[in-house]
Every structure is written in structure tokens, then in C-alpha cells.
Amino acid sequence: MKKWVFTLTMAAGIVGLAGCGGQNSDTVAKTKAGNVTKEELYEAMKDKAGEQALQQLVFEKVLSKEYKVSDKEVDKKLDELKEQLGPQFEMALMQSGFKDEDDFRQSLKINLLQEKAAVKDMKVSEEEVKEYYNNKQKEIEVRHILVDDEKTAKEVKSKLDKGEDFKKLAKEYSVDTAANEQGGSLGTISIDEPQMDETFKKEAFKLKKNEISNPVETQFGWHIIQVTDIKEKPKKDRQPYDKVKDDYAHQLKVAKLDPETIQEALKDELKKADVKVNDKDLKETFDNILNEKKAEDDKKKAEK
Description:
This protein is of the alpha+beta class. It contains 14 helices and 6 strands.
């Protein structure tokens, strides 16, 4: 699972209410001290999460015109998340500001729409799809030695090539202290392992049983990887390639997405839709997406 899922805001939960602004002053709540009107509620919510709610509403309208996400697709993604997070799913919802599963589904649908917009022009080769299909048919047991720099990684690899013990070297060199308790073992992983670095997985799944990789650089440092076992999926559990290749091609494209690509796709869609914000307090809602200079300035401020 990509980590974007629970970086969603609670804006979707107030989308329905946000749409009530600008209408008549119908009473939402009555008290002896005075009533609360729709207009008052709208203004209060606008101050707290108006831009987020407006973005959600506009994104859904604009993207739904060009792309379709079915309830079945949302259910599938939701089931994947539940399986991956297990008993932590409900807690993750609460921590991310969602009141319940239905509240979360709306934001999940919008993110799936964003994905479709972002991958529409992306290409993957038949070779990539076949490789992914083949990797989906197995799981591997893997261990690694993680160090901070390439020089040390090459030193470790040289010692392994000379026959020195992997577990001993892991204990001596590796900065992954948790894995070192198991001789560098990371256990059994799949090609879709959500918590595993994509570069690490790609290199690990190229290895044969007992083969040791050359130094591999990821966001965490430099790895020496060894596959200690390969477990093939039973043939009866394998789906024909032609039946799943389109779905797998989409999954590969999504795996290549980054925030910049998604942002650029949203920018294109908003421009095509000629979005104009009439509410003076929300005029800048889409500036970070449409105004490249402002987005760059905000990014620099965040990095300081």
C-alpha cells in the first residue's frame, strides 16, 4: 500500500456540509441563547477546513467527468488496506481524522481518480508487466546488511565473496539493528510488500536462491542482499497472464507515481476545467497547484 492513503485529510467528511453555504439562512440548531444557521455553519467550517473541502469537491467533479472509479474498485482498495493494516486499520482511520469507514471511502475514491489522471499518459513495457507477473507468483526469504556508504558496502561484499559468514558480518557492520538479531533476516516478502523500498524489492527479486547482490543504494543507505529461499505459488492459485496483465500494468504505473507527477496531472485537469473560485475567502485554494512560482516558494519555505 502506498502511504498516501492515510495522509488524506478529514475534508471529505465535511464535503456534504460545505455545500450548504450560500443558500438561505435555514436553522441548523436551535438554542435558548440563539439559533445557528446554515450560513453561520458554512462560515465556521470555511475558516477551519474550507480550502480542503473545496479541493475535495472540485477534484471529484472535475476528475469524475473524465475518469471513472467504480464502487468495486473502492472496495478492492479498501480490502487491501484492511488486510495490510490488520487490527490497526480502525486506529489509522481515527488518527487521520476520519469518523468512520464511509467517511474514508469518499477520500479514497478521489485518490483513485487522481491516480487515473496521473497515469493516463504513462507507459510500461510488456517486458515490465511480464516480469511483475512472474514476481507475483513467488515469495522470497531475504536477508541484508545495511551500511551508510558505498565504500563500506563494497568492503562487506568483498568479504562475503571470500566466504565470510553473512550473519557474522551483519552483526559487525549492519546498522539495521532489528534485523541483526536474526542474522540480517527480513523474513519472507512479496513483490507488493507495502513497507519495503521499491528499489530494494526490485533488486532482491532478480536474485537466485543463495545469490548475493552487489551493493544496492536506497533511501535508507547501502544494502548487500541475499535471497535464502524462494517459494513458488501453486499453479492452481495462479491467474492466466492475459486475464491480469491490464490490471498489473496499471499497478506498475501507480508504483511509479510521485507527488510531483500527481500535482502536474491535477494542474492539467483543473486548467482544462477552467476552475474559478467566487468566494473571496477561498480565492487562493488552488494557487499551490496552478501557480508554479507560489508552489515553489511554499516548498522552499517548508524545507527551511
